[in-house]
Amino acid sequence: MEFKNKVVLVTGAGSGIGRVAAHSFAKEGAKVIVADINEQGGQETVEQIRASGGTSSFIKTNVAKFDEVETMINTIIDQFGRIDIALNNAGIGHLPNKTADTSLETWDKVIAVNASSVFYCMKLEIQQMLKQGSGVILNTSSIAGLRGLPNHMPYVASKHAVIGMSKTAAMEYAKKNIRINAICPVFTVTPLFNPEMIDQVSAGLSEKLKAGIPMKRFSDPIEVANTMLWLCSDKASFVTGVAMPVDGGITA
């Protein structure tokens, strides 16, 4: 029970990596707050955790809006009095398009959800962690935060921003017993990345993407969640400011 009685916030926990991470922390004894704009998905995650004997609650939140993030954080503090671990995981993708053809609407939406939200969350999480004297923050970036990805300018920009923010905040609060890292998964099979849907957009694309990964497969959400568990545990007590690839060797 690595995280027994720890208060853990997971944004974007209504599906995909966030849902699996929420389950994983709950299995280790954490009190997991599931946050998502998708109320049905978020409630399903909570029900699944509770059915497995875990402790969880749901807060509907659009993390792209500062006032909703503020309400989320205040609700957690009112209920639990602290936030021990925060996984700022919520994110979206977009249809591929060359930079010159990318709409301003797509740019604004992706940056708001993937990057601005991480700043909003960290700003308030850090304020609370300073009061309580400790905390761990883990932000979900991507291998697209470590390298280029043609036809995905908004996504790449947002994920580079997540790494930059994580490193900067980690340096600022390293002496305050607050660790801040980023995790950078490769293509992970989730509702956000469905190989069948990818192939509908471009026939054979999923196999081409897989071929570029040295392990010749996509990652499973549990592999990302297991890395999250380690980065947030005391076993990683001297690890901060890291952008950790979980990528089957693609960035090697």
Brief summary:
The protein has 252 residues and is α/β, with parallel strands linked by helices.
Explain this structure.
This protein is an alpha/beta fold. It has one domain: Rossmann fold. Helix 1 links the parallel strand 1 and strand 2. The chain is globular and about 50 Å long. The two termini are 33 Å apart. The model has no long low-confidence stretch (mean pLDDT 95).
Could you spell the SSE succession in H and E letters? EHEHEHEHEHEHHHE
State the separation between the terminal residues, measured CA to CA: 33 Å
Counting structural domains, the number is 1
Q: What portion of residues is helical?
A: 40-55%
List the defining traits of the structure above:
252 residues, alpha/beta, Rossmann fold, seven-stranded parallel sheet, 8 helices, 15% strand, globular
Question: What's the SSE blueprint?
Answer:
Blueprint: E1 7-11, H1 16-27, E2 31-36, H2 39-51, E3 55-60, H3 66-80, E4 85-88, H4 104-132, E5 135-140, H5 153-173, E6 178-185, H6 195-201, H7 205-211, H8 221-232, E7 243-246
Parallel strand pairs: 1-2, 1-4, 2-3, 4-5, 5-6, 6-7
Helix pairs in contact: 1-2, 1-8, 3-4, 4-5
